Amino acid sequence: MRTLFQFIIENNIGDIASVLGLFLAIIGFGITIFTVRKAKFAVLEVRNDIIKIDTISILSEARATMEEIERLHREKAWRILPDRYTVLKKSLISVQGANPDLSKEHKESLNRAVGQFTIIKNKIENILSTHADSPDASKLNKIVTKQIDNLTQVLEEIKNTVGR
Amino acid sequence: MNSKFTQLINQLHEKTVNNKINWEETAEENIFLVSFSDYSVEIADYSDESHDLYKLRIYNKEGKIVDKISSDNCSYLTANELKEVYENARRKAMGADEALGELLESLNEI
User: What residue ranges define each of the domains in chain A, with the CATH number in brackets?
Assistant: First the structure.
């Protein structure tokens, strides 16, 4: 044992071990920071995917509501339509609120749908309050169909980004 | 009138004439709409036989009106520009230029 200590002292092995120890500690610290950052990034990605899945669900419901609105226009069910427009607008507005990072094109599409349904709602409310003639359902549905197409495009593009 | 409104009308006019913005038809024959990331703008014609009346409204993301201007409460020049914006928006939304182009092409082929 004494010979071993003597060997360590004579060859300055203690100093070398300290330097090596420090070096290993720095590498270990770097690896820890890298792992923590990677985990943090993974958590953020999962959170973003959850928001996207939630958005897909709301937009799918919004599209179904638009299709129902088209049917109600054909059936001339004017009295129940204002409530449907309100539900639809709330969905579209909530998607915009929950997704501030949506692309410019997607924001424009959602905004356009809100604008178009605001005008349709005002028209129907006006007709109901003044007892004016029923509007042309096919003309209204031409607008609704265009919004369904736009929303479908937004929906598909968001679906394609989940997990990426 | 707010000078920013004058600028907005100028820009809308310029961008519409240069086909930089896409006006769309709406459920109302006399209203056309263009949407951006955060706001939408509608231009409407409420003219009758006795006088011209054009209105421009700005909607936020929630579909609420944040500001509006009417041709009967602005300068003659601005009112005229509102009318021009409406006419160009209508032509753009209805595809008037494409229709005229195709008609001319058809006539040339006869």
Answer: 2-159 (1.20.120.660)
